What we know:
With 548 residues, the chain is of the alpha/beta class.
Amino acid sequence: MRVQLLRLAAIAAVWACGSSAWAQDLLIHGGPINTGEASVEALAVKDGKVAFAGPLAQARRAAPAARDIDLKGAAAFPGFVDAHAHLSGIGFREMTLNLEGTESVEGLVARLKAWNTANPGTGAVSGRGWIETHWPEKRFPSRQDLDRAIPDRPVVLGRADGHAIVANTAMLALAGVTRDTAVPAGGQILKDAAGEPTGMLIDNAMALVRGKVPPPTATARAEAVKRGVELYASRGWTGLHDMGASSEEVGHQQALAAKGQLPIRIDNYMSPQDADLVLASGPSQDPTGLVRVRGVKLYMDGALGSRGAALLAPYADAEGTGLILTPRETIDIFLKRGRASGAQIAVHAIGDRGNRLVLDAFQQAFADDPAALRKARWRVEHAQVLSPEDLPRFSELGVIASMQASHAIGDLYFAPARLGPERLKGAYAWESLVKSGAVVAGGSDAPVEKGDPLVEFYAAAYRHDLKGFAGPDWGLDEALTRQQALALLTRGPAYASARESELGLLKVGAPADISVFSVDLMTAPFPEIAKARAVMTVVGGRIVHDTR
């Protein structure tokens, strides 16, 4: 925590310098520099753009009055962009009860009890970040577990994937959830052997209790956006695709940009509730060019961990085939409006049935002009489990696969049981998709995952968990080469947001978006990459993070 506070303070200090924080001429050298296409000795940056990439002597001549940046052995790359994250959620994770890293039911109870002691009161307690798949108890937490920590205040704790919550008895009572409560379409209320709610609510059933938790104040919502972008700059990201953004959130981004306080680029994909403007008028951007509204983000199915992902055949470890969260006819209305306005469509699909339904819907929306679908840059968010027949359709249709490598190194603990060996062959199939000719854009899905570009690179190129473990049938042949992993997090997101002509490569004339890490990702042993850190972040020639 102390290290994180120091990094955020460093960012704040940079912006406090006023005009000096804006683009400067820079001479970058003293460590490996990968342009995305070649290795060079030095970069010259003028007026926020790459002016030269090559030998140091020539770089000095290209920017004779530039600020000298000695990397001191650190390695520079084209700016890493998170192609799928939730900005407000990232900020709120830093502001509320963060259960990331909880290692057992007992650990969850202990952290909840400690938080309650430090934050006494009578109001509802909320938090997020637990995931049970590696816990020794081998089960979801229950209301009785939460009651042991806090019996007298309503408690609701979100699973890391955002597709399930656990509530204590007081919260269920406040929400009026009983054994007789009707289950909402696209949701589940888990029950024990006696037919009583366990406290676990899946997907659309979460709304039964979430409406009882007081919403964050406007001030807190603005602070969450600010903390999120500062954290991302400190981790080496130069951009983020914000999935499910609200109009208010975009307004907070624009306000930061107008004051010179937005350190990264943001491409927004609006929630369905806030998508009317972009669906009517198409993509737009603010005067700074840092904040863009690209389209709308929709949901087809749920998540694999909570067995909400829609599968073509039943789960291998339980009954049921998952959940459809948005009816196809509703999806089709958004697709029709998106095509008419040029708004980019991004649809969450995890299970093989969910992915097939989205691909079918996309194909049907452009049945009269298939070539136009490729130009539309429509995206499937996650594309996590694919049937063999559907995998080549991404390339054939021109649909972008927006995937998160870190899911594979977390899901390896439960996905084999959920899917079975045959279906597992089409899961987290990055290499097969790349080989087929599909465009794959890499992201993190933070706050579901940590939101660290180094973890995403490590997972994409190594496909082992952070302790070096991978199961014997974990499809290590789907790992990417290091150069492919680099493209996944640079060129892929640039294409996915229609920015490939300007971002993704450090080429002459391109904006100087640069991510600098403490190790060379092209040569360092994988365990070193997992422990590395971002040492500098440059966006449009502005140094927005620097701990060299």
